[in-house]
């Protein structure tokens, strides 16, 4: 931390300390005022604003200094005073809780307070965000250190940011100040047999939004499990836990369902109407493009790749019906959902439009909810169908043909933009032996794990595909082959540390990889061939390494990744 | 730049002051509208006022009106512990209306830069 940052830090700690120190006196004064105000209606009217101000400022300053529990209590007090119903009981409860909280803060050992201060008030320049969007912030709360280091290691292997807490209080504070994506929690703590799950339950109640959580416990007894269920936990593992199982469970919990917004193309010759419909759909989280002339629709289809077409029936040049027919002439668009927008008088024309393969009719002026749900239903259906055709069911990665197609598209774009890309061919070492020795289920586990690792650690813009049984292809966009080499080598290193389990045995796996560069190799095929040759070298040089091909690959020696 | 911070809660005022000092400004603290006017009279290099809304006797908005009536046209930023409603936000003469929450350091920095740069 820079010196000015550290002096700010000290200053804030001082302010925090003074806040805690002043609280008893302020509370006492205010409770006195409260009691006076209860004596008569006149007193209540007179002292009301001051009482309100007390709660209001406690809320504001408390929140700014990171005392979230106090801020929430003060908020309750403020709301009670604002409300119509007699506030008496609520306010008195708030005072009691405030006093308890103040005592608790006062008694926290000095270093814990400093730690709480550091995690809740961060004014140092924010660190560069190197996490990819799929990497999660996970809080692990466990006071038994034995398995923790293994878990931390595996979770970090996948690139997640993991913070470890040994007691429920610092954990509680941390969740409130910086919300994690998932929690792994032990049930038992020194203060109680179900203290862990109780903390979770109270956190969920306080924040209103339940957090994805997994319980880790040395005990699988009914009582512990019940308390986990009551706390709304999503999983229960008994120790000793296989880190990979926990890892995959966390992954399931935190994978966002569908990151890509639905893409809708609107064709309407009235720009204001098109814009209005676009707005409605964008508010529902979709990406929308508008085209006012039907002739522009074909190019837009090509470039934008929409999931659904919203077409006006009455347009100059050609009707919506005719446009639908033109689009359906192209085999790749036969499955594209098309929804017609028409005004009421066109109801007779609806039948003929249906034969052109139109999915639905919506009459103008539209009812916003109806438009959104009709579009969502059909666009999502197409997405699902498409993914069944384009993705490998076991890993969720793109299948061979889709991967090639996507890479070709990306390279076509790159020719126009003059960008560089790198391709990596990844092949698991001795995979046949894994299947033979440990069984096919174990082999599957290895494949799924590598797929998850790739998905988590690489960016959403990178194209990741499963090329064959144990072969993966990745197109890393916008990076040099050296950088790609570093990235893939880091992945190689981390993958090699993962423990797999089969029956009673534990084993590890490695992979080899070959890297090639665009535009040195300007076509998908040459890029792939070159990466493949580099992979071959990697295998023959002993496996568990990454080799980059150079332009002289055909006649010279390739470079190894240092 | 020299900035005047007005807040009846001394801790809150010091906290706002600390944030502004970290951002490189010089800070003067006042506990109420009277002190605020006094400070403005004694220092002619004050460039901006950051004031709490909820104060006894004369609140933030009342202070703003008072100053404008006196011909003090300095940029004025209002701080409140609640989510500021639109009516408050759109009060003429206000540079910005910010909520005192965990993100105050960034929102204040931005608002100050905007108010001083405008």
From TrEMBL, chain A:
List of residues that carry 4-aspartylphosphate: 186, 312
Reaction catalyzed: 2 GTP = 3',3'-c-di-GMP + 2 diphosphate
EC assignment: 2.7.7.65
Alphabetical UniProt keywords: Phosphoprotein, Two-component regulatory system
Coiled-coil portions: none
Domain Response regulatory: 137-254, 263-379
Record-linked SMART domains: GGDEF (SM00267), REC (SM00448)
Region annotation (Disordered) ranges: 540-562
Family annotation (InterPro entries): CheY-like_superfamily, Diguanylate_Cyclase, GGDEF_dom, HPT_dom_sf, Nucleotide_cyclase, Rev_trsase/Diguanyl_cyclase, Sig_transdc_His_kin_Hpt_dom, Sig_transdc_resp-reg_receiver
Superkingdom per UniProt: Bacteria
Residues with Phosphohistidine modification: 56
Name listed for the protein in its UniProt record: diguanylate cyclase
Automatic annotation (TrEMBL), chain B:
KW Hydrolase (keyword) present: no
Protein name (Swiss-Prot/TrEMBL): Response regulator
Modified residues (4-aspartylphosphate): 52
Highest taxon of source: Bacteria
Domain Response regulatory: 2-115
UniProt cross-references to Gene3D superfamilies, sorted A to Z: 3.40.50.2300
InterPro entries per the UniProt record, alphabetical: Bact_response_regulator, CheY-like_superfamily, Sig_transdc_resp-reg_receiver
Keyword check for Phosphoprotein: yes
Signal peptide range: none
Taxonomic lineage from the root: Bacteria, Pseudomonadati, Pseudomonadota, Gammaproteobacteria, Oceanospirillales
Keywords: Phosphoprotein
